[in-house]
Amino acid sequence: MLSCILSLQAALSRLIFSFSRDQMLPGSAWMSKLSKNSVPDNAMIVSCLLPVLICVWVYFQPDNLARITAFAVIGIYISFQMVVLAALRQRLKGWKPAGEWSVGGWGMLVNILALAYGLCGIWLLAQPAESNDFMDRWTVLVGLAVVVISGLVYMVLARPFGRSNAPENDAIEHAKRLNAGQPL
């Protein structure tokens, strides 16, 4: 469990840093700073604060651990499935992944099975808990709705998209260059 927590915090801090570097989050100037060792310390602080608060909450309310875990895991599943869906979409548009490792002609099937597996996982995690209390029963979906709605409101009001100068929509061309042995 400790390994999972540390890897998620490391990934989250890098995600916060990259979004902040592209000026897509409130407080981006502060969260996009790197330490002298090239570590996004401020983004790491942000990624550690919420888990600490959750740990304190679970310490005093241990019955909430299963619901909090299900909410966190459904978020992870949705995030991964967004990548799987994007890869499937690109495959349908003609993308052939480049690189040293490949499953060859099985790629499309593996991609479809990965999407089906993830969607089944999301469906299972979204099932209501056994409780008579509405919030206990629907914590996962209510939490998910709060995150999605607040994210959409932020997207509409702050309009953070389009601020990045990172390349986009280049997966097919990038893969063609790699497959042809051309430098990137």
UniProtKB/TrEMBL annotation:
Which keywords fit this entry according to its UniProt record? Membrane, Transmembrane, Transmembrane helix, Transport
InterPro entries found in the cross-reference section: AA/rel_permease1 (IPR002293)
Superkingdom in the source lineage: Bacteria
> Any idea which GO molecular function terms this record carries?
transmembrane transporter activity
Question: Pfam families this protein is in?
Answer: AA_permease_2
Q: How does it sit in the membrane?
A: Multi-pass membrane protein
A cellular component annotation (GO) from this entry: membrane
For this entry, the protein name equals Permease, urea carboxylase system
